Amino acid sequence: MGDGAVKKSKRDETEEERRARKDRERAERKLREQSEAEKLAQVADGDKRERKHKRDETEEERHARKERERAERKERERERERRAGAAEGGNRERMHKRDETEEERHARKERERAERKERERAKERQEQQENSDNEDVIRKSFVHDDAVVDDEIPTWHLESNEAKTSGVIPGWKKDELSAAMEVENRAIRHAVDEAREAARREERRRAEEERESEAIERREKRRKEREEKKLRRSQMSDISGTVVGKSTIGVSELQRQGYRAQFEKDLQRATALRRLVDMDDVSAALVDVPPQSQYDMYIRNFGDMGRKQTGVQAPAEEDRIDFEVQAERVRVRHRAVEVPRDLGLCPENSADRPMQLVRDLGQDNVGEALENNEVMGEPSLSNVSSSRVIDSNLLASFLGRVFPVMRAILDENDEERAGPEALESKSETQFSTSYTTFSCVATCNRPVLKVLFNPCAPAYLAVLHGAVGGEGPSMELDRYLSVIVIWNVYDSFSPEKILVSPSLLTSICMSPRWPYLVYAGAEDGSLYVWDTREPERNHFTAGCFQRNAFRLPSFATSWQTGNHMAPIVAIAVAGYNTVVGVRKDENEQLVSLDATGETYFWVVNEKDQSKGAISDTENGLNMFSTVRLFLATSKCESRVNALSMNQESFALDFVPTDPSHYVVACSEGVRHISRFGSIAAPSLYGPCSLFFARPVAVPSCVRYGTVDSRIFVVGYDDGTLRLYLHTDAAPQLSIPLSNHSVKEMRFSGCDKWLLWLLDASGTLFLLDLAKKEKEFPVLSQTLLNPETGSCTCFDIPPEGKADNRAIVLGFEKGLIQLHTLSDFTHPPSSDREEHWL
């Protein structure tokens, strides 16, 4: 109120009052300046007098002054020590705050908040009381000061006149006036500061209350959003009614639900088709045969009585000169084909007659035997001492069956002599206890591009080697651009089979129905098939290395029209991961995806050997081979891009609950596609944002879960991993895992939340998505060694087919390592939450 009164008096004063106020303020300012100058002069005089006094003081005075200064210095040191002790106490208090538990910290925070609010309320009451007292004091002081100032103006003028006349200004009056004005100003400033501080405290208290209310509203809003999201998710799961329900359902229950859903779908389709078809009953007699008599039935079954000869009556031994066997004539059909001699496919002359009979004859009867054509074969009969029967076909088949067994027995003997430590090396990795190295000398100059277990027979591995990096030990093998080596996990000394290709292969897969079929896609857009059942003698012209013949493709699509026009990036068998299981009575379909997003479906067919006719569809079929591929249909990936360019694609995978649906990882995101044109919802899984017309998050690989088919994971070029639900376009989980592109992902066959992952730098990760801290991997190890190079690929055994405690790794320098996993890769279930999704 004092400030308001002053402002109002200034606003309402007259010209004379304003001039008088200005003169008074000017005089006060000059007086303050003079007083300050006098104080400075006094301080300077005091310093001079003190220095002069120090020079003139006696020995006793100097000693007393030294003692006084020493006492003052000790007092200052004790003050500093007290401050340091207070600071140390604060540090101890902060250390105690760091070591306290969550409950203690919460209790301390509540106690401090209550004490702070109590202090603020007490301070506010005190400030209100002080403000009211200060307002009364200021109001009275202003009124009194105006009167004093008005009374002092003539006195001041009189004193100034007297000073002028006398030439001396009294100092005590100046000191009194300056002291009074200083007290006034200090009181005014103190009151104004107290009012401003009170206003600031009130504003801070209101802001804190507003922030607390906003935080409470945000928490309530987030809680409501989470409840609504859970409700929508439960409603969607109830509406969808897919084969796989909650994640707690076992594999057998999932299969039963899959069978039930497929049966209901087929029944609905059959019912709908039945309404469209109107059939008429037509009867016709195709054959009119009279009934057979009892005698006719006896004659018909006479030859099928199952009788056989159990003995024979032979003549005496001296009369037994020769004998013959009476039997029916064997019907033989010969087929021949004209083959160039340099291919090495022409059989030997002795092989034209598989049965070679040499009788025990003397030297004198040789000519007679030759005339009667009784002796067959070129060896001299003079060296033959006893009769022998040689069947070349039986001998070849016998050796083909016995040789692998004998080689395995010899290898086992070598293992027993060398000991188990000679084969398995102690692992230096975090995730395995030991490992076995597989290395083929002929492929040591080729990097490993892909390695996988056989889905039907997990004891066999298929390893894809890339282009030649340097001159190798086999000049014949270096002529081929790509090599596939088949290994037996129990035989690390030599490979089972070596498959060669004239084109550069980019991806391979194996049949989930027939373990002897291997498929591969090439960089020129062609597909190749190998049938490992074929005998090695059909492929001797391709080359051989250490008793292993190089096997050419059984069938190639490069001779056919309608191939891919871009490099193939992924191939897979349709429905290989279906939850209802693979049916062997159905025809297998192979799916190929090229870099432009085009997807082709191929039907795998086996030629009937009994038919000797050659058709136009057999272009690309190798001699003596029977497996072929037919182009069933093609579905072009929709190219939706702002620049009207081809949609670049990288990987594909099939939906386990419906093999007619599949997902493709392309540059704009993960596309959900239906093969037969039905609705695929959602059609695009995010994120799909653009930066300067270029996609930000580009997926590099995609994989569905092996146990829980509702989920699938996508790896991106920026090293990010995202987990999706099949029915939701937004990711449920996003983990920034690495700074390099994700290359391979595999779900563990024993735990649906364990995920193996490999990036482009050769670092292997193991993620446990059921942990509370899902962003941190269970293990992370960079597989880089000067002897092996960096790790380029890996695979784990299929679920339920073999021991899941194994993992196979492929390296840059052509080596393969089969690791036995340790117990570290099976985390305990105490710190896991498996039903979070």
Automatic annotation (TrEMBL):
Residues 10-128, 195-230 have a biased composition (Basic and acidic residues). InterPro entries: DYNC2I1, WD40/YVTN_repeat-like_dom_sf, WD40_repeat_dom_sf. GO terms for biological process: intraciliary transport. GO terms for molecular function: dynein heavy chain binding; dynein light chain binding. One of its GO terms (cellular component) is cilium. Residues 1-143, 195-239 are annotated as: Disordered. SUPFAM superfamilies: WD40 repeat-like. This is Uncharacterized protein. It comes from Trypanosoma cruzi (strain CL Brener).
